[in-house]
């Protein structure tokens, strides 16, 4: 069965939650005997790969415009999938799901993965939010099968769109942690093991990294630094302002990190913080949990669904509560916590998705 994947910027090593999801999932799908092609947005690609871990890679030019790139790319990708003779197009996220009826009209079956209600993101204006809501509706109406990554999203599509059949809950996953140290990298950053708080996300308003910086600046724990890993897809007023705020408060910015740099940061942090106002099911949080880090997260539905202990949560937007929790963790000895990660196993998740393909 030929599967063509769109709705992602691409794989491997491209920043984003959907991108991490696809990077982990589709090599495992290919290993189960499926012919898998991921169509990438050429403006994000920095390699010349045509195949990676059993997955074919096809690059399609796309305008690097925040409001248009996803839909333009997906339209082009669907026509490319038809030319390839795809049996199934797997569309990720509600914006690209606008193209679901087109894929069906071209004779292909569609699996649509709903990664979260992106119309709740602060970066979008009224017109964009309207189109995202329409994408969600069309994906739920016309996809042969809908995958949701959390019960929160399953409830959304049931209540708003009446879709209850042909829907599967398939969580985001997390690979086995690679515990390591990287003294040279830490010396470059000016940090030491166990003496930094880690935040990790794209620089967009709904991640509330400005709240994390403000809360940490209130505490200013002796000998502990704040490290934020990530960057923005597009330079804009928010990301520029966040970087300026970080520099003014002595925050260590790593940029987008992968591989040993990322593994060493996760292995040796004092704790991980995710103050978001919007998430689907945050892979960054699952990664931090796999490294057994204490975590502090906002009490939004997606984070609550993970089922952490009550003291791990603070009310979203409550900077004073976040500062109080940071103060407690920074004053205590470093600890590690054993979480139950069984349902976030990528091999199991790949088997679930493969079963959905076969059912079509």
Spell out the blueprint of helices and strands:
Layout: E1 2-6, H1 17-31, E2 35-41, E3 51-52, E4 55-60, H2 69-84, E5 88-92, H3 100-105, E6 109-114, H4 126-142, E7 145-148, H5 151-161, E8 167-169, H6 183-189, E9 196-200, H7 209-219, E10 225-229, H8 237-248, E11 252-255, H9 259-268, E12 271-274, H10 283-290, E13 295-298, H11 301-304, E14 313-314, H12 319-331, H13 346-359
Parallel strand pairs: 1-2, 1-5, 2-4, 5-6, 6-7, 7-8, 9-10, 9-12, 10-11, 12-13, 13-14
Antiparallel strand pairs: 3-4
Helix pairs in contact: 1-13, 7-12
Q: Report the β-strand fraction as a percent range.
A: 15-25%
Rounded Rg: 20 Å
| Helical percentage | 40-55%
Mean pLDDT: 95
Number of helices: 13
Backbone shape: globular
- Low-confidence region ranges: none
Name the strands of the widest sheet in spatial order: 3-4-2-1-5-6-7-8
Biggest beta sheet summary: 8 strands, mixed
The computed structural class is alpha/beta
What is the end-to-end distance? 10 Å
Order of helices and strands: EHEEEHEHEHEHEHEHEHEHEHEHEHH
The number of strands is: 14
